[in-house]
Each structure stands twice: as structure tokens, then as C-alpha cells.
Amino acid sequence: MSTLIVGGGSVGKRHLRNLITLGETGFGVVDTRADRRDELAREPGVDRVYADLPTALRDGYEVVVVGAPTAFHIDIGRRAIAAGAHVLMEKPLSHTMDGVAELIAEADRAARRLMVGYTYRFWPPLQRVKERLDAGDIGQVYFANVVFSQYLPDWHPWEDYRTWFMSSGAEGGGALLDESHTIDMIRWFLGEVDSVVCEVGNVSTLEMTADDFARLFLTFESGARATLHMDVFGRCPQRWLEFLGAHGNLRCDINRNEITVFDARTGETATERFTCERNEMFVEEVRHFLAVLRGAVPPIVSAADAAQTLAVALAGAQSSEQGARVTVTRIGRS
Q1: 0.90 cut: is pTM over it?
Q2: Residue 205 contacts by C-beta under 8 Å, 6 or more apart in sequence?
Q3: Which CATH fold topology does 123-275+300-327 show?
């Protein structure tokens, strides 16, 4: 299928190269920056480069991959759906709920697939965590802790972090939205969130208008609780989750690719180690998306599912602004 990549930055290039690896051909790329267009024109597999989206969409691409800043996701998605394309959209779905319901409805009416890229669903250690929790290996989960922390200038060392959308509140950057992976995965593990108490803001000296940290306390419909901590100033990278259950504890260190389970019934601790590399989850994501387009499987993360994750994040922002607990609106799933 012919594919249009919207946004020629890091994630756009990654999706392009991974799709080529999987045998796809016929690529166009849109970017507003002339230097990126010149660079992308030299990428193997790229047939056309464009300075604007309307011109590109007139060429009738079957698939649009949205890798532009978050604030532009809904507009790009709606234009792509109107042009008859299926859409793979980077997370989060948006930075507000404005236009989200319309985008989902338009995709449904047009029978176009719309999937959102919460890539950690494709990470083997986390898939194993899901299996073990669902199997009851530590019994009923009472509490979970999640930490994602990494120094923003180290994310893309080849560019000035101050000019990257992640530093811009107006473009939908920041710890709460960009690291909403944590919200997606905790919903995947523990079910829907009933309410949230949150503080989000800036405490570091990083030069950014977007938030540099978010701390959420979640109450789930099941009765479980969880804390999520996301920041972009931690100098030692951390990505880990732990679950406290009736029969034991489970901890997953994403950076170390390992799971440790303590079983209180036997007093034993066991560790599972994995050998996987970060790009593998992006490859598996696009492989899954291609299978969705063939009708072989439903999307692991539908637009409605991603909208629910966004609803939790925005409830967190509201909680921080009001200094109060906020009930999370239920979006529903498809």
C-alpha cells in the first residue's frame, strides 16, 4: 500500500524505515522544514516529498502515518480520513478532547482504520507482565507504582531540545502527554481509572514551556490504586513498574529487560530476563497495523481506547489546576 509519512522527524523516519524493512513500498513524506525535506528526499524508498499536507493527500495515499507534533494530530487525522486513508497516529491522540469524537466517528463512517501508537503494548517483558498478572501469579493487585524518568536533552542529542515540540506546551509536548505510555499500560494491566489526583508542572531549570513532570495518584474501578511518576529531568534513566498483590510482588525494569516476582506463599524470588531492542516494539507495532489493515486482527490500541487514556491525562491536568480529585470521563471502546 502507498504510505504518506506526515512529519519527517525521528519517529517519522523510524516508521518509514521499519515499513520498508517489512516490504512496503511507495512512500511520500510531508514536512514543513526545507532541511528535512532535502534529507528525506535522499532516503531509500521515498518517492515524493511535500511541503504541505493538502498537496500530498491529493496524490491518493492509502495509509497516513502521523508523526507530527501532538497539537496537530486531530486535524491531520481528519484530513487523512476524508481523503480515504487509513491512519496510524503517534501517541497521544491529542492534547485536548476537541475534535476527538468527530475523528473517531468519521473514521467509523468511512470504514477507515485508526490506530494509535502506544508501542509498549508490543514490548515482550510487558506482554509477559500482562500474562502473569492475568494468571493471578501475585493474586489480586492492590497497588502499583510506575516511574518513567529521563533527561530531555539526552532524548535527541542531535538536536537542541528547546526547539523540539516536547519542550513546547503550545504544540502538546511535556511529560504528562508524551509519557502517557504509563497511563495506557496501567489501564491495560489494571482496567479503567475511576478518579485521579495529580500535580503537573515545572520544577527543573530546563528551558521549556511544557510541563517537565507529572505525578498521578489513580483509583481504579476495581478498587486498586496506583502512582505514576513521569519527568524529563532525571539524569539516570529509569523506566520501571511494580505491582503489590495478595500473594506477592512483581517488578518489571524496562531498561534492564527483566521481571522479578516474589511469591509470598513459597518465599521464593524468581527473575525472567529478556533480550529485546527498543526498535523491535516499533517494528511489531507496524507489523500489527498492517495485519489490522488486512482484516486479520482488531487493533490492539483503537482510537477509542487511546481517547480513554487521553481522558485520564486531561483529568490529571484538571486535578492539578483545581487542587482536587477529578472523576475520569468514560469514553468507551471500539
Answers
A1: yes
A2: none
A3: Dihydrodipicolinate Reductase; domain 2 (3.30.360)
